[in-house]
Amino acid sequence: MKIAMIGWEYPPFKAGGLATHCYGLTHSLSDKNVNVDFYMPKTKKASKTDKPNLNIIEVGETEVFPYDRPDSKEIRPDKITVVHNAVYPIDEGHKQEIVLFLGRLTIQK
């Protein structure tokens, strides 16, 4: 059997709990002689495996930098002008343009 899996985290890259889950799942399948191709975005540290029937395939044109911070070297001022990491209080009666972003942001270099 051959399985193609898609995820956005795999050790050593961890931004949350998905990497641990994907690692356990792919290794368990591999131990059962299932061929697994795990597709994920490029990261700073390439993911590797010692399992012969498990392939970690990084795809995309640019690296993914989830949860970047304003002091990150990956966020350049010419690409993003304002980054807010918190909710700021808005005075009553004051109009504020609000953008709700749910998901992740990928920066093209």
TrEMBL record:
InterPro entries: Starch_synth_cat_dom. Residues 2-59 form the Starch synthase catalytic domain. GO terms for molecular function: glycosyltransferase activity. Keywords: Glycosyltransferase, Transferase. This is Starch synthase catalytic domain-containing protein.
